[in-house]
Write a structure and sequence with these properties.
Layout: H1 3-24, H2 28-53, H3 56-59, H4 62-82, H5 88-99, H6 103-146, H7 152-164, H8 167-181, H9 187-198, H10 200-213, H11 221-245, H12 250-260, H13 267-275, H14 279-305
Main location: membrane
Keywords: Cell membrane, Membrane, Transmembrane, Transmembrane helix, Transport
GO biological process, one term: transmembrane transport
């Protein structure tokens, strides 16, 4: 499959979701419903099915995990250093927006089209790191800022419990357990998971478009520009620097760079809404980074795989 053949349909579905959201005037409740369907049903089914039947050699990628994690961590650290005069909670939300790549909703379908099974494996690993490591850390920092004096151990424990309850974390873990147990997949269960998981890509991509279609309040241009640059430029560059130190096979290296170059996902916006911090900034960064990434991801994919 050519690069354009893989990339264009993905962004076309996002555009279709945007048009649908504007045409039908879908509001926040509609986005929440679509998002809940993907997060609690479709994507967990896809992740469980993939992990339950994956080749272990495809998942044991310590170097890839380290390369992607360091690129993500460097981006978070630079964002928090840049905003060091702000309160810790705001810095954590801004850092989350800068380093939280859209590895699941956008990464899985895009890398599946470009790299097949390796791409899906990389996107699943990247999603688990983004949700279980980055998101948990930033939420813990916000909680610590809110409850100074309550003890960092309790705060981290609460954040870890919240992550453990996230279906995007426990579904692939259960799939790994199923795989390790060698239970096999009954035909009706495989059909169920295939049908449900197969709805992930179109619904998730359309959800991004609907989210982008909702008018958002403007945010200060400076922080938005810096956060977007950190996401689309600095994170891929930090990941590329790590690849010089820890080279990976061509397909895994391409996957690491493409995932690092993904726009900001919706996770930071959910956290910002929950804690009522930097809601406008996260929404604007998601919008701008997604629009810009249509070009940047297409060019990067052609350079790496064309």
């Amino acid at each position: 499959m050519s690069v354009l053949s893989a990339v264009l349909p993905v962004f076309a579905i996002i555009a279709a979701g945007y048009g649908f959201g504007r045409w039908r005037r879908v509001g926040e409740d509609g986005v929440a419903l679509l998002n809940n369907y993907v997060v609690w049903l479709a994507l967990p089914a896809l992740l469980f099915d993939f992990m339950a039947e994956a080749d272990w050699a495809l998942l044991g990628q310590g170097r890839f995990i380290l390369v992607f994690s360091v690129g993500m961590g460097v981006t978070l650290a630079l964002s928090m250093l840049w905003s060091r005069r702000d309160p810790l909670g705001e810095r954590a939300i801004q850092g989350l927006a800068a380093a939280y790549a859209n590895t699941a909703y956008l990464g899985i379908p895009l890398l599946q089209g470009l790299l097949g099974a390796v791409g899906v494996a990389a996107a699943v690993l990247g999603s688990m790191l983004t949700v279980s490591l980055l998101f948990a850390l930033c939420v813990a920092l916000v909680e610590f800022d809110l409850h100074r004096g309550a003890g960092i151990g309790r705060t981290i424990g609460k954040a870890a419990l919240g992550v453990a309850r996230n279906p995007l974390v426990f579904a692939p873990v259960l799939g790994l357990v199923w795989n390790a147990a060698g239970l096999g997949m009954p035909a009706p269960a495989r059909t169920f998971l295939t049908l449900l998981g197969g709805s992930t890509t179109p619904v998730a991509l359309a959800t991004i478009g609907v989210f982008l279609a909702i008018p958002r309040p403007k945010a200060p241009a400076g922080p938005v520009a810096v956060t977007t640059i950190l996401k689309l430029l600095v994170q891929p560059l930090a990941t590329a620097a790590m690849l010089l130190l820890l080279p990976l096979p061509r397909e895994w290296a391409a996957a690491a760079l493409l995932l690092a170059a993904m726009p900001t996902g919706t996770g930071p916006f959910m956290a910002a809404q929950l804690y009522e911090r930097d809601v406008a900034l996260t929404a604007r960064v998601i919008l701008i980074s997604t629009l810009v990434s249509v070009g940047t991801l297409s060019v990067l994919a052609m350079v790496l795989l064309g």
